[in-house]
Amino acid sequence: MHKLRLFYWLLAVLLASSNAFGDDILVEGAWSRATAPGQDVMSVDLSITSNQSAKLMGVLSDVCSRVELHHMFHENGMMKMREVESIELPAGESVDLRKNGYHLMLMGLKAPLKSGDKIPLTLTIKFADNRVKKVSAFAEVKPLKSTDRPSQEHEHMR
Ligand SMILES: [Cu+2]
Fold it and tell me: What does pTM read for this prediction?
């Protein structure tokens, strides 16, 4: 009995440390959409909860050459977007990037994204005390014609 309990405890610790659920950061609902032929950029939506005041500083992924943090805004009646250096994560608040006008942008995809793929992401989080933590997460790729619309990725087509 004791051994079994210890086993489950160790398993829980391993899962917590190796997955999106770290000790301070929770990444939820990360998803993207399958790419159309010839498309080499795609947006990713997700939510991040930090139990301390922090900032999302950047993201890395093996599937593309780089990941940018984008913010959408209205200017002269037009929807525009720009790359931002970081995204604020207030303590204890679940920050839904999309609802706050943000998204991740996968730039220079090395291969098409297909429905059912899992995109590996490594998020760099900086806490208010300057501690830096790397958090791993996966974004699920949904079908191209998914009715749930992700952030306007067509805005980024070059
Ligand atoms: Cu964008």
Answer: 0.78
User: Alpha-carbon distance 150 to 104, whole Å?
Assistant: 11
64 vs 8: which has the higher pLDDT: 64
The Å distance, Cα 7 to ligand 1 centre, comes to 44
List of E strands, 76-116: 78-83, 87-89, 94-96, 102-109
State in Å: Cα 23 to ligand 1 middle: 29
Q: Which CATH number fits domain 23-143: 3.40.50.460, 2.60.40.1080, 2.60.40.1890, 2.60.40.1180?
A: 2.60.40.1890
Token digits of residue 1: 């009995």
In the predicted structure, residue 106 carries a pLDDT above the cut 90: yes
Kindly tell me if the per-residue pLDDT of 1 is higher than 90.
no
Interval between CA 28 and ligand 1 midpoint (Å): 20
Measured in angstroms, how far is the CA atom of residue 153 from the centroid of ligand 1?
6
